[in-house]
Amino acid sequence: MAVIVPFESPSGASIDGLVGLVAADMERVNTTILSRTGSDVTMIPEVANHLISSGGKRLRPMLTLAMAHLTGYPGDGHIKLAAAVEFMHTATLLHDDVVDESEMRRGKLSARMLWGNEASVLVGDFLLGQAFRMMVEVGSLRALDILSAAAATIAEGEVMQLAAAKNTATTEDEYLAVIRGKTAELFAAACEVGPVLADRPKAEQAASRSFGMNLGIAFQLVDDVLDYGGKAAKLGKNIGDDFREGKITLPVVLAFRRGSDSERAFWIKSLERGEISDHDLDHAIGLMNKHRALEDTISRAHHYGAMAVDALALFPASPMKAALGQVVAFCLARSH
Amino acid sequence: MAVIVPFESPSGASIDGLVGLVAADMERVNTTILSRTGSDVTMIPEVANHLISSGGKRLRPMLTLAMAHLTGYPGDGHIKLAAAVEFMHTATLLHDDVVDESEMRRGKLSARMLWGNEASVLVGDFLLGQAFRMMVEVGSLRALDILSAAAATIAEGEVMQLAAAKNTATTEDEYLAVIRGKTAELFAAACEVGPVLADRPKAEQAASRSFGMNLGIAFQLVDDVLDYGGKAAKLGKNIGDDFREGKITLPVVLAFRRGSDSERAFWIKSLERGEISDHDLDHAIGLMNKHRALEDTISRAHHYGAMAVDALALFPASPMKAALGQVVAFCLARSH
């Protein structure tokens, strides 16, 4: 699941620093993305560009560029790897929309509403194939290993979510395992390949991976909160989507565990059996507020955000390191 | 699209020779397949093994093993590449079933009927990820290049088919471009990686690729014919599926081009507009027989079969080469 990341948040935290530092590289990434969605089969660039050009902020490829810079990589393999990361992400979104039967994505009709489920599945597969081609061209077997393992882990996390769907007894640990797979793993891999390309020591590779993993977890937790109280217009999706789809996210896990028997009956009725009537979303949000479930999900997000920042401690101070700290603050501040 | 390949055909052509020659390797491939579908997320092995253990004859991985043998490869990288090829094929089948809304696959309910479209999409993605992990483990960048390009080309062929679907004006050339992508490319890649692993001269790599490509085209053309006159029980699918789905295959292309105005109106009504009543499939088969469309599709298949056999000419005579010739004869004989 992804949301549009607004460039500014009320707290002043911003990703503008990062955007500025990687701007020149990002232009090359965008050119690569454009050329690699090309095909004589016109439906492919149509579907791919509908989503790719729809205003996502390309946070994941920016992270690949940033970590390559931070660790002093002098080559240009990071351009293709960053494009590959964005293709993997886009393929996941296309397939997610089919899985979730989503009607909207980033404030526009989803690709499957415009071209059908078939096109979403197949163009997703095409982008995944193109992503691997680009990785192969870069020629780093270690980067290939990281990104191909991530592809399998992401799918595994999504299946886990499917199996956990509508199960209100899901524990916080089980839920964390889901989001580590479906969201955080790609952040982690996107970051890890930077120092891998630069052939830096294992400690820097591990630190970069840890930064990405914890940032990804924090990002997803804030996303979960926004689904119950966010600014739908900025998000490009509707409040309550998770609720209507019976998705078990951390706010639900906390509200369910802390609730009374009759409250648990409400969660089971609405999420497991899908019996939802007009004011049930309001009631759900009321229960979350009563049990501080949204607030505490944000606290948890801050915990992972802090781990992300600390993971970068072994790198010397630099504008890029400061910008990456700002990215963490920005992701957390989205919830205000 | 794939069918169960029966081990024997009335003409006596058989794949038993190939099966015998690769039996020891194939056992290792099967062990690899089993271990790589493993996951703590139980739905993954369930869905994957439902299809993988459902009686497909694993022709594609056998081709990888065969070409590695034929070109004298002494290592064991071909085991993982063969398993990767089977995973790519299985992922394609899982996604195809979602795209085609198929209810049956190899004589059993399709995975999407048992676990839903969601699981079929995501487990397909997982298998694709695992396929790439195995390729990376083998460590041949050239083999990775071939197989990742194949992944993109297969998806491209499927999208092309989607765009051509229900368009009775499709030419034979356009149709050939579709099946080169969606079917023959994986046969070609499966064969090509054998001599690539063995580090054989370009001529042998090209010959192996050509063998696979032409065998794949012949295989698909026979498959198209079987959909209008095959033995549904052996195929594990129903006669007329392509017709009901409005799929434009070579028998349709030929019957349409050779037909009268009123016959073309029939094809447009049934395939483009999907207005199909009780006896229309019989009528369609009648028109195909009248214009020798099925017979001539088989003739075309023999043409590609002959090209496949000739592609192997530069290899010295051996039991493996003879067995590969038998595979071509067998694929063609399925139509009798």
TrEMBL record, chains A, B:
Keyword line: Magnesium, Metal-binding, Transferase
Membrane-spanning segments: none
Cofactor: Mg(2+)
UniProt entry tagged with the keyword Metal-binding: yes
Stated family: Belongs to the FPP/GGPP synthase family.
Protein name per Swiss-Prot or TrEMBL: Polyprenyl synthetase family protein
Provenance organism: Bradyrhizobium ontarionense
